[in-house]
Write the structure tokens for this entry.
Amino acid sequence: MGIIVYGEAMLSQKSHYALRALLILAARADGQPIQIAEIADSANIPKKFLEQILLELKKPGIVRSHRGRSGGYSLGRPAKDISFADVLRVTDGPLALTPCVSVMAYRKCDDCFDEAVCGIRKVMALARDATADVLESRSLASAAIQMRRAGAL
């Protein structure tokens, strides 16, 4: 019997780095762009990997790039309007643990006998809803405020 893998159950390094970089941008009170090297140094992220992550986050408008001598990256919209769920969906994909309960990428499980009565699906839907509730209700702004209070930013 094989193991069925639907995705990583833990936060990927890519998502972790994305959130750390975005919190640095969110903490910037003046909203001015920050150069990628400064973000990488502040968040202890390899610069090349950060470049790839920021390009990915630019597509849905989570960040904006600015050209020129004082260029760099800034948030694409207010930090209060960017949830942890927004970021994780871009970097890691759907929040659901199984494809049959995914809102964004639904797919029937290959070995499912009947979704309507599947006990696994019902529990995974509850887990997805609880996870989404938490991640959608937490913004970069609220996390940045907590970190500033703790002296971490």
